């Protein structure tokens, strides 16, 4: 190994070899989505990037399985450097055509997010603080392609590389501040580039080592997991996921449990897009396959020596059955969350009700279901789940036809769950009944600050209830808009109450 490579190994430790989302898209020949759009774009809907990467055999990386990417691209590209792909890149030991994968391109240079990396990381550490957009600097400099790990990706080498990147892409779209909420542009969203970096073993670990993995210079996976927010466990195929049968993936989950980090279970795209309506039996079958039958003693590894070492670690630190039990709880929680969100989008009321009865709760910090048109009954079940979901802080619920029934259920969640801080509930056909329920809920939740109510059917009674809440000392920002049925006198009363309160509370506002 050359001096340059050794220096790069030391300068860029294992945890600092994670890849940005734009670079990952380039690795499957896709360009960054530009402008505003009404959907959450799939990989297929993105434009092709110029010069998509190919292996030695001439095939596109996007057509290969993960192990084939290693064999036909990564190993040949790093043969001379004899180190990981990212280490070779950092030390300048990759050929130009290989280094281009991690080098910025004009495809996405102009689309930097607002806020610098440090500001974003500080916000992630304590999301309860207000994110200061004004104080944050604009991204005028280049976002690095490689940086410190945000998320460790646990996956199976036997699955397609494109499928893996698509699951990571869908996970990225659910990250805080990644997507501008749709309420501002009639359902249109803007996808932002944010400093989130994914650690994927095939690129971060040398693929030239043979022998006892415990002696591998890139074997400290626990340090990588500890450095980031947690692990994204990919689930493909979703009906019988390979990852839960692989001992390495279970080992990575064990590190999450030890470090107290986040575990995010993410099924492949067909889970979300399938027209198949999940019946009660299929839901129970999925939970049985992925949770009830989960047993680390039957998990497999390509290298038997690796399996023996991991099983020995599990047995000495936990014991086989205690480890299985510790694993099944988080796995069931995550699968129930995925089932609930899938059923919510599909308006599958029986599946929603079953997931709610089984204890589903949401863990995403920002719930964005704008213009899903879920209806009042689904909104009622969503309210029950939100009431026990302490991870959710912001909700984009506009365009969901929830009416008073759904709005009342959301209000009950706001009153019960004090982690909830804001809600965009525009375009939902809500009248005074639902509006008054929300005002009463806001008074009971000291942390709730922003309520957007555009394009509903509120009358003066709701506006005057807001006035009364302000006079009682409630600090909040309210968006009414001209599309409600509130008179000019009532609007003036709210504005007057707001002006009177400004001296007592910073940040109080009325938007009309």
Describe the structure using short key phrases.
single chain, 512 residues, alpha/beta, 6-stranded mixed beta sheet, 6-stranded parallel beta sheet, 20 helices, 42% helix, elongated, LRR_dom_sf, Protein NLRC3, LRR-containing
Report what the structure shows:
The protein is of the alpha/beta class and 512 residues long. Strands 3-1-7-4-8-9 form a six-stranded mixed β-sheet, with helices on both faces. It has a six-stranded parallel β-sheet with strand order 10-11-12-13-14-15, covered by helices on one side. A three-stranded antiparallel β-sheet has the order 2-6-5, with no helix packed on it. The radius of gyration is 25 Å and the shape is elongated. The protein has two domains: 226 residues, no CATH class; 151 residues, Ribonuclease Inhibitor (Leucine-rich repeat, LRR (right-handed beta-alpha superhelix)). The protein is 42% helix and 10% strand. The protein contains 20 helices and 15 strands. The C terminus is likely disordered.
Count of DSSP strands: 15
Shape: elongated
- Specify the structural class: alpha/beta
Question: How many discrete structural domains?
Answer: 2
Proportion of strand residues: 5-15%
* Major β-sheet annotation: 6 strands, mixed
Helix content: 40-55%
Widest sheet, order of strands:
3-1-7-4-8-9
Q: Give the radius of gyration.
A: 25 Å
* Mean pLDDT reading: 84
Q: Cα distance, first to last residue?
A: 65 Å
pLDDT < 50 stretches: 105-117, 131-141, 505-512
- What is the number of helical segments per DSSP (H or I, 4+ residues)? 20
Oligomer: single chain
């Amino acid at each position: 190994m050359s001096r340059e490579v050794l220096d790069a190994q030391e300068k860029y430790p294992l945890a600092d070899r994670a890849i940005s989302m734009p670079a990952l898209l380039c690795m499957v020949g896709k360009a960054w989505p530009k402008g505003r759009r009404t959907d959450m774009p799939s990989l297929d809907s993105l434009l092709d990037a110029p010069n998509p990467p190919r292996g030695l055999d001439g095939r596109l990386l996007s057509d290969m399985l993960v192990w084939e990417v290693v064999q036909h691209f990564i190993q040949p590209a790093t043969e001379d450097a004899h180190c990981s792909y990212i280490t070779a890149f950092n030390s300048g030991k990759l050929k130009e055509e290989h280094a281009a994968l991690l080098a910025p391109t004009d495809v996405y240079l102009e689309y930097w997010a607002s806020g610098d990396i440090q500001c974003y990381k500080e916000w992630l550490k304590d999301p309860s603080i207000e994110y200061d957009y004004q104080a944050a600097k604009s991204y005028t400099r280049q976002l690095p392609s490689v940086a410190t790990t945000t998320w460790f990706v646990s996956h199976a080498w036997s699955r397609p590389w494109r499928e893996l990147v698509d699951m990571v892409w869908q996970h990225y779209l659910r990250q805080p501040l990644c997507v501008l909420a749709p309420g501002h542009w009639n359902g249109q969203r803007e996808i932002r580039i944010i400093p989130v970096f994914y650690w994927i073993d095939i690129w971060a670990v040398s693929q030239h080592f043979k022998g006892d993995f415990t002696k591998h210079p890139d074997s400290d996976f626990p340090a990588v997991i500890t450095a980031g927010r947690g692990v994204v466990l990919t689930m493909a195929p979703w009906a019988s996921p390979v990852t839960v049968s692989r001992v390495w993936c279970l080992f990575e989950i064990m590190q999450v449990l030890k470090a107290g980090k986040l575990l995010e279970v993410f099924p492949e795209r067909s889970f979300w897009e399938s027209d198949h309506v999940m019946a009660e039996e299929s839901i129970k079958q999925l939970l049985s396959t992925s949770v009830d039958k989960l047993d680390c003693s039957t998990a497999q590894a390509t290298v038997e020596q690796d399996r023996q070492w991991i099983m020995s670690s599990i047995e000495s630190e936990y014991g086989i059955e205690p480890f299985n039990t510790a694993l099944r709880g988080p796995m069931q929680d995550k699968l129930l969350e995925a089932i609930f969100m899938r059923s919510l989008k599909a308006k599958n009321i029986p599946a929603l009700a079953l997931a709610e009865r089984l204890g589903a709760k949401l863990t995403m910090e920002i719930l964005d279901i704008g213009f899903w048109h879920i209806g009042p009954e689904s909104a009622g079940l969503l309210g029950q789940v939100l009431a026990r979901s302490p991870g959710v802080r912001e909700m984009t619920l506009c365009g969901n036809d929830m009416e008073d029934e759904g709005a009342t259920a959301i209000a009950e969640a706001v009153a019960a769950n004090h982690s909830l801080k804001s809600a965009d509930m525009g375009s939902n056909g809500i009248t005074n009944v639902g509006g008054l329920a929300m005002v009463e809920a806001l008074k009971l939740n000291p942390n709730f600050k922003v309520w957007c109510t555009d394009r509903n059917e509120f009358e003066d009674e709701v506006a005057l209830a807001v006035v009364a809440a302000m006079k009682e000392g409630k600090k909040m920002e309210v968006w009414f808009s001209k599309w409600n049925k509130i008179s000019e006198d009532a609007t003036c009363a709210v504005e007057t109450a707001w002006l009177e309160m400004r001296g007592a509370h910073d940040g109080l506002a009325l938007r009309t």
